[in-house]
Amino acid sequence: MTPAAIETFFATLKAANPHPQTELEFSSVFELLAAVLLSAQATDVGVNKATRRLFVVANTPQKILDLGIEGLEQHIKTIGLYRSKAKHLMQTCQMLVELHGGQVPRTREALEALPGVGRKTANVVLNVAFGEPTMAVDTHLFRLGNRTGLAPGKTPLEVEHKLLKRIPPAYMVDAHHWLILHGRYVCQSRKPLCWQCGVAAVCGFTLKTPAPPG
DNA sequence: ATCCCGAGGG
DNA sequence: CCCTCTGGAT
């Protein structure tokens, strides 16, 4: 995709949604971290169901520790990968209490040192909680980067670097959410809705036979 | 490279 | 049935 096309791409997404946000529900930085940790290979809808149950009972690291591993598992059992997530969240809460005064750290290194927190999760927290222009490459960004030609790459890290290089700085902070929402609702994995896509004109991928909405 | 792993959609 | 969902650890 040419620089001009990229400009049009994001200007179009911005016009349709000036202030994009995550659809994960949270009311503190810790809740955000916990929700993102739980969101691996799971839908926001599913995560929100579980965190609504969980955060009423435990919305701080210490309160989650007090639940115990089995108590925590019960609250998040409806999410995929729930056993490893419960274990990791518990270990992360332990570290937050012991090393960070119960607060969520603000640096990439400290975030990625937390069990269950990798580069993608750290990027989301840095972006959403601390306003940094990071690019968290999840399944949607990876697919769109390659499908549209915006940032082709064989690995998420390669796509991330290309996105950071190619997206105009003015769009960088919100780009992550524009791409995720576009991927979720329009440029879907199985069923890209090209006939109702606002950026199809500058996209390298176009469905040959656009299926009618019916 | 493989494992983890429930819910929802097609 | 199969695929996908804001991945990370081993």
Automatic annotation (TrEMBL):
Belongs to the Nth/MutY family. The keyword Iron-sulfur applies. It catalyses: 2'-deoxyribonucleotide-(2'-deoxyribose 5'-phosphate)-2'-deoxyribonucleotide-DNA = a 3'-end 2'-deoxyribonucleotide-(2,3-dehydro-2,3-deoxyribose 5'-phosphate)-DNA + a 5'-end 5'-phospho-2'-deoxyribonucleoside-DNA + H(+). DNA repair enzyme that has both DNA N-glycosylase activity and AP-lyase activity. The DNA N-glycosylase activity releases various damaged pyrimidines from DNA by cleaving the N-glycosidic bond, leaving an AP (apurinic/apyrimidinic) site. The AP-lyase activity cleaves the phosphodiester bond 3' to the AP site by a beta-elimination, leaving a 3'-terminal unsaturated sugar and a product with a terminal 5'-phosphate. This is Endonuclease III. InterPro entries: DNA_glycosylase, Endonuclease-III-like_CS2, Endouclease-III_FeS-bd_BS, HhH-GPD_domain, HhH_base_excis_C, HhH_motif, Nth. Residues 38-185 form the HhH-GPD domain. PANTHER family: A/G-SPECIFIC ADENINE GLYCOSYLASE/ENDONUCLEASE III (PTHR10359), ENDONUCLEASE III (PTHR10359:SF18). One of its GO terms (molecular function) is class I DNA-(apurinic or apyrimidinic site) endonuclease activity. Keywords: 4Fe-4S, DNA damage, DNA repair, DNA-binding, Endonuclease, Glycosidase, Hydrolase, Iron, Iron-sulfur, Lyase, Metal-binding, Nuclease. Binds 1 [4Fe-4S] cluster. Its EC number is 4.2.99.18. The lineage of its organism: Bacteria, Pseudomonadati, Pseudomonadota, Betaproteobacteria, Burkholderiales. [4Fe-4S] cluster binds at residues 187, 194, 197, 203. PROSITE patterns: ENDONUCLEASE_III_1 (PS00764), ENDONUCLEASE_III_2 (PS01155). Its cofactor is [4Fe-4S] cluster. It is an enzyme of class 4 (lyase).
